[in-house]
Amino acid sequence: MLNDRNPACPLYRLLLALPLFGILLATPALAQEQSRRPTLQLELGSAWQERNKVQIPNTAAADRFQLDSLAGNGPWTSGRVTVNWPLNGPHGLRLVLAPLAYEEEALLTEDIRFAGGNFDSGEPVQAEYKFNSWRFGYHYQFCSANNWQLRIGATAKIRDAKIELSQAGVNAKDDDVGFVPLLHLSGDYRFNPRWSFHFDFDGLAGGPGRAFDLGLRLSYALDDNWRLGFGYRGLEGGVDNDDVYNFAWFNSALISAEYRF
């Protein structure tokens, strides 16, 4: 019988351990293979306006006012579509379509000069806000260990923004379509084969403005293809230059559905 004093014992134990060792090696490989599959994700949520301060133009010719006090805090329906497409090795591409807009009517409590228009207190005003975001990015997976997968990259963002006020024949608006480069960070942590945590971040600060988009999500795998999740998303940023002063902050509670091809 084999025992600790038998010279063959170490080899015997090694032969017994080889299948388990193979499973341990295959598990992270399988997880990495699954994570490298293309994914399509739909995110739906309710967005609340924490802050939205506006002055257009950013001179003495206009008034600085709280658009959140005028239009309210919400909630409004929000959503986005995200496509992740892996390339060779740790490289990948990402497409994000994230519209955000609302329209509200309120009674003005003070006169407002905005974008060349004069709006009188005591009269109803229609307020429209839009901040759509269309993004295309590249990411590199630099870590895949201890149940973590971490990625870093860059995002090219097209900003489609508009603020508009209307009142009894008076209409004034400021709209802008522009390009914004952003840093991208994202990652996943697997608690077990079913449950996982995910975060994604696009953001950059500098010059006259900043932009931050942070998503946190807990998801559950229904099967090999479908995952459902819930979590939080925060959007914050704005610009302060001669033409525009606008800084806004939105919080969203979200649910998501993801399909892995």
Structure characteristics:
two-stranded antiparallel sheet; disordered N terminus; Lipocalin; 14 strands; 261 residues; 2 domains; ten-stranded antiparallel β-barrel; mainly beta; 2 helices
Descriptive overview:
The protein has 261 residues and is mostly beta strands. The chain has two domains: 1-35; 38-260, Lipocalin (Beta Barrel), CATH 2.40.128. It is built from two helices and 14 strands, in the order H-E-E-H-E-E-E-E-E-E-E-E-E-E-E-E. The protein has helices spanning 9-35, 67-71, and strands at residues 39-55, 65-66, 76-86, 91-98, 101-107, 112-114, 117-119, 124-145, 148-167, 170-190, 195-206, 209-221, 226-240, 245-260. The protein is elongated and about 60 Å long.
Fold topology:
Blueprint lengths: L8 H27 L3 E17 L9 E2 H5 L4 E11 L4 E8 L2 E7 L4 E3 L2 E3 L4 E22 L2 E20 L2 E21 L4 E12 L2 E13 L4 E15 L4 E16 L1
Antiparallel strand pairs: 1-2, 1-3, 1-14, 3-4, 4-8, 5-8, 6-7, 8-9, 9-10, 10-11, 11-12, 12-13, 13-14
